[in-house]
Amino acid sequence: KDRLKGVLAERIRYLTLTDASKVWMPDTFFRNEKIGAFHTILTPNLYIRVFPDGDVLYSIRISITCACSMHLALFPLDEQTCTLDVASYGWTKNDLVYVWKEGNPVQLAGNLSLPGGFKLGAFGSQYCD
Fold it and tell me: What is the full DSSP assignment across 4-16?
């Protein structure tokens, strides 16, 4: 990582790639996924940025529906907590660690709407095992 610092960092902000086959990527999946789809209208909606310090940002547009167990004993005064569980299919946490982006790791659409009158009360970026 250190070999990329210095002159490159001063001249190049990052390199953008659109061919994911050129970079090793972990076999990421969502543990609680029920339905999932990649957005590929015209071209796949993805890009990879390689920064001078060696960091790699992989961004891909997907839509998923996840399972969420609801506890409705206090309905309609209840609150639900749903998770989005990200993991690697073939690597253990000793081999691969997912790290949240520092500063605003979760980004939501301004026009976010949830079914059934639900409202998003809060969100976080905690780790789970």
Answer: GSTHHHHH-S-EE
